[in-house]
Amino acid sequence: MQTGYLITRFVAPEKDPFDRLLPMFRELLLISSGNVEETLDWLREVDRQHQITDKDYTMEDFIEELFERGYLRQATPGSKGGAQATEKADRMMREAALEQIFGKLKRDTGGQHRSTGIGNKEEWQGSYHSYNFGDPLEDIDLSLSMQEAMRRTGSWRHMEEQDLRVRESESKSKVATVLLIDISHSMILYGEDRITPAKKVAMALAELVRRKYPGDHLEIVAFGNDAHRISIKDLPYLQVGPFHTNTVAGLEMALDILRRHRSANKQIFMITDGKPTCLKEGKSYYKNSFGLDEKILNRTLNLAEVCRRQSIPVTTFMVAQDPWLVEFVEEFTEINGGRAFFSDLEGLGSLVFRDFEKNRKKRL
Predict the structure, then answer these.
(1) 166: which residues sit within 8 A by CB, 6+ positions away?
(2) Does residue 1 have a pLDDT over 60?
(3) In this structure, what CATH number is given to the domain that contains residue 221?
């Protein structure tokens, strides 16, 4: 007689209190641009209002565990504040951003992440790496993975993700990308936080390139009154300043960076919410926040043409949709021959990732 089990209800196991609070800490740390003391104050206030902890596991227990698990450390002498985020916390934020943005995108597209276009055909290099999120399943070496499981447990039947080994491949066509992020004051103006989603996209893209396309080159450039490079580890701590929008400075720095790379495939992604309002002339600034200043506009459009002549497409992601601003972006895009997207903040990540993957499938 055959028997079976009837499952009427599945009750998911409750998360450990630390694991339940960690995502909240991570999100607030990003919003505060890495200000640990401010983040912890916000957490305590949320706890006071909503009782998210109890007498068995208090907020102070959680904070103590953040230190014990290596997410926080005591501030170095001379530094402000009593605690600092560690490299482990930085990595956690990048990995979470990748999963939040790219994980959802993969589920929406059925996992179609593989590059199949001419010029990007991958060749096996005779080496392997441990499985990473996003690796094509067809690149997993089953025989070697079974050997790893045997070595670890004595039986291939107990194979886990940590045992999987993936054939190391290298694209024939590498891509050099500069991601420009607008840090002008309008990115936090009008009651809307636009800089946090922009930072998340940059962190996720950086983590994707590090894992999936280690041969590619990605640089992050922030631009306000001036432009400056942002290292990957400093991305969570990027802050908006009381700046105007010097799009020219951002594009000029991007061109200078790409000029130094031998890769035949180069591109610029630009996340912005405002019109160009600033130019630097010598040591002084020419600024005009009202309308589209012809002097600033012409310099910006000239750089669109320079990028086109150098075969560098600019993909612009606008998180504002004012009609006259749309008209400017469309003119910039037509001159450059690139692409433009007008997106709300929620859809920004998916657009950036779809276009990044699409561009890797073709020779730019």
Answers:
(1) 128, 129, 130, 131, 132, 135, 139, 140, 141
(2) no
(3) 3.40.50.410
CA dist 355 → 113, 188, 267 (Å): 12, 26, 11
Can you tell me the distance from the alpha carbon of 285 to that of 279, in angstroms, rounded to the nearest whole number? 6
135 and 229, same domain (yes or no): no
pLDDT for 111 equals 34
| Overall average pLDDT of the 126-141 stretch | 72
Q: Higher-confidence residue: 274 or 86? A: 86
109 part of a folded domain: no
> In the Cβ-directed half-sphere of 19, how many Cα atoms lie within 13 Å?
4
Contact 46, 24 (CB under 8 A): yes
pLDDT value at 214 more than 90? no
Nearest to 270 by CA among 256, 295, 249: 249
- Select the more confidently predicted residue: 78 or 203: 203
CA 220 to mean position of chain CA atoms: 10
**Residues 338 and 318: beta-carbon distance below 8 Å:** no
DSSP 319-359: S---HHHHHHHHHHHHHHT-EEEE--HHHHHHHHHHHHHHH
**Claim to verify: residue 326 and residue 187 sit in the same structural domain:** yes
Are 312 and 254 in a shared domain? yes
pTM for the structure as a whole: 0.70
Give the C-alpha separation, 299 to 326, whole Å: 18
Among 3-12, 211-220, 222-231, where is mean pLDDT lowest?
3-12
Q: How many domains does the chain have?
A: 3
pLDDT for residue 140 is more than 70: yes
* β 165-171/217-223 pair status: unpaired
203 and 325, same domain (yes or no): yes
- 356 shares its domain with 324: yes
- Torsion sign across C-alpha atoms 245, 310, 325, 196: negative
Which domain range does residue 151 map to?
123-170
- Of 249, 239, 316, whose CA–CA distance to 278 is shortest? 249
